[in-house]
């Protein structure tokens, strides 16, 4: 056994476990922000569009920062960018927790300084969104651990289990709010994030290539050794190279559009559904939280199976089928006002969106194999940008048409699904060339 064999640490499964654990807790940083945003509405006198912008703010940093931080993986490995994002998210949640304490302990002060407090919430919400940005870092980190034939399973498992966080916390949040109050709930969530950061520091592992670089070996030596250990994918030379290489291919941008539809849409709905259920169907916050949690968990868990399906029938075929389901679910919520039917339509949307999320990242390492980190950054970052763009659009429907706007806003998701099916057809034709 060589000295290098003795020095490197970890295995593909260990790399997958550490990244999944880190992303799960990173998402905790914002999992209560959307569901509790409605509580700021009356004290700060927020309009529907201001509320939509507020719940979307973490998605702005959580999407845009995925681009440079994921590309950073190609030159530094995943641990450094992952931990950097987690620490920034901790500062964001510390700020939000302090503001929540101030607002709900001193409502008179809050009402007199509502503009200042609103912008401070936006700022610290922006910082806390860094926890979401860990997603693309983990995607790149996991991709370099696994061979092509297992990418669907590995990335589906990583994203599926990691994305369980908002769903699980949506179940826990109403219980916490009722029994502990909003102030204590925020500090508990802050504790979750700190614990998760520590656990990632202990368990997160870079693949063999990056470990060899950190030992001082040349890129050529590191690549040779990594491939001898079964690592198929090796990165471009630098962050800038990775971003440039991936940006030059049309396939990257088509995948961005697909991911905008379903993961950006997922983030938007996770934040918007509590408002939709409480304001349109007048259900309690507990019922709204439970329905949102069901949507979030189903979208996340089904992603694991979506990855397996994509391994078997291909990413493009899987994507087309899933987007048809999303369109059917969107159509149901848009045109049928029955509560039970809307719940069923929500579940159909969850299945379609979750499976497509897995299919997209099955396609990334296959279509942009020489710059997985850069491509993952563009796809995960600009794709997740939908979580920032879509909620204000939904708020605009409400501002224009009142309560009926909550239903009419789902036209956005129907049109996105149809458009994305067209993108899949283009990708399918490109694959035949």
Question: Could you please describe the fold and organization of this structure?
Answer:
By secondary structure, the chain is mostly helical. The chain has a single domain, classed as MFS general substrate transporter like domains (Growth Hormone, Chain: A, Up-down Bundle). Helices cover 85% and strands 0% of the residues. It is built from 22 helices and no strands. The protein is globular. The chain starts with a helix and ends with a helix. The relative contact order is 0.16. The mean pLDDT is 83.
Straight-line N-to-C gap:
45 Å
Looking at CATH, which topology would you report?
Growth Hormone, Chain: A
CATH top-level class: Mainly Alpha
Indicate how many domains the architecture comprises. 1
Fraction of residues in helix? over 70%
Rg measurement, Å: 21 Å
* SS content category: mainly alpha
Main β-sheet: number of strands, strand sense, barrel status? none
- How many runs of DSSP E, i.e. beta strands? 0
Short structural description:
The chain has helices at 3-7, 12-28, 33-44, 48-64, 66-76, 79-105, 107-112, 114-128, 130-143, 151-162, 164-203, 208-214, 219-228, 239-247, 250-280, 285-313, 315-335, 339-367, 372-384, 386-401, 404-408, 411-432. The chain is an all-alpha fold and 433 residues long.
